[in-house]
Amino acid sequence: MNATVPDLESIFSAADKISSVRSLLIQQHGQLIGEQYFNGRSGNKPYNIKSASKSIIGLLTGIAIEQGFIPSIDQPILSYFPEYFEENPDPKKEQITIRNLLSMQAGLRSTSSGNYGAWVLSKNWVEFTLNQDFVSPIGGRMVYSTGTSHLLSVIITKASGMSTKAFAEKYLFDPMDIKVGGWDKDPQGNYMGGNNLALKPSDMLKIGQMLINDGIWEGERLIAKEWIRESFKTYTHSNYNPYGYGYQWWNTKTGKYTTYFAWGHGGQYIMMLPELDAVVVITSSVTNESRRRTYKRPVFILLEEQIIPLLENY
After folding, report:
1. Which of 63, 74, 85, 224 has the most CB atoms at less than 10 Å from its CB?
2. Checking phi first, is residue 161 left (phi over 0); if not, alpha (psi -120 to 50) or beta?
3. Inter-residue contact 145 to 248 (CB < 8 Å)
């Protein structure tokens, strides 16, 4: 290996200097290159992956379509929430489709950030989400909202007749020997669609590897290749960061490479670099995290300046 290329020891040392980082796993060509835990953490403990949960919901939606539970991505949500719309008829809201939910283009006021607390404390998360006024046209600008992802979870449950957790275990987690460490529910018992799923970093790595492998895990196809490609496209952009957004997955250029990633509050990442056939997983403490998200820049600098050069020369 070229002497100027960072080695694992220097990469782990640099990661340790990012005060929030608690784990870093690097894999290439399906082989684990390095795995390190910081600040007394271990690989045996599931981590709350925060909003990276949304990306899992995106995958489960694709599986539900592939399995025939959901007939079309362009199906209006009206058919899944008839009770709500009977009491609250709204011809405009009734036009919102599953596709609009996936790309965060439903147009309804966000239930994240400043509205998150009120949403979580509400008696009915679905009603609270659907009660929001329009702040953008349907299919217009991105309105990032945990409630939007939660609607997808409830739709999966209604369409399949099983809880989102049971659905995930049957079609995704059990075939990959992934164990859920915890997963919050709403007051009606629906599993949270956009937050608070707990997974071990090694299981996050499995998900990234399966996606790099076009949806195949140990010879078994779990997700349609086309769904992954559609999920990783850019349909919209956030007003608050430079990233592109697909179906609950982010993407950005890191140096000359495209990185597709799941991203959770505080710095929970499943990162995939298909051009390097590599997966990087990072989990972080959220104890001191602010809405300024100051952890982002050092994490992506680490990826671009140290991890990528290692992968290029490994």
Report:
1. 63
2. left
3. no
Cβ within 8 Å of residue 89, ≥6 positions away: none
Under 8 Å CB-to-CB from 265, ≥6 apart: which residues? 50, 51, 195, 286, 289
E strands of 29-125, at which residues? 31-37, 47-48
Task: Pick the closest to residue 210 from 256, 165, 244, 260 (CA basis).
Answer: 260
End-to-end C-alpha distance for the chain, whole angstroms? 7
Structural domains in the chain, sorted by start: 8-313 (3.40.710.10)
- Alpha carbon separation from 78 to 130, 142, 181, 199 (Å, rounded): 11, 21, 33, 32
pTM, to two decimals: 0.96
What is the rounded distance in angstroms from the CA atom of residue 224 to the CA atom of residue 251?
19
- Note whether 43 and 205 are within 8 A (CB): no
Tens digits of pLDDT across the chain (314 residues) = 445 789 999 999 999 999 999 999 999 999 999 999 999 999 999 999 999 999 999 999 999 999 999 999 999 999 999 999 999 999 999 999 999 999 999 999 999 989 999 999 999 999 999 999 999 999 999 999 999 999 999 999 999 999 999 999 999 999 999 999 999 999 999 999 999 999 999 999 999 999 999 999 999 999 999 999 999 999 999 988 999 999 999 999 999 999 999 999 999 999 999 999 999 999 999 876 555 556 789 999 999 999 999 999 98
Torsion angle of alpha carbons 101, 172, 197, 270, nearest 10°? -80
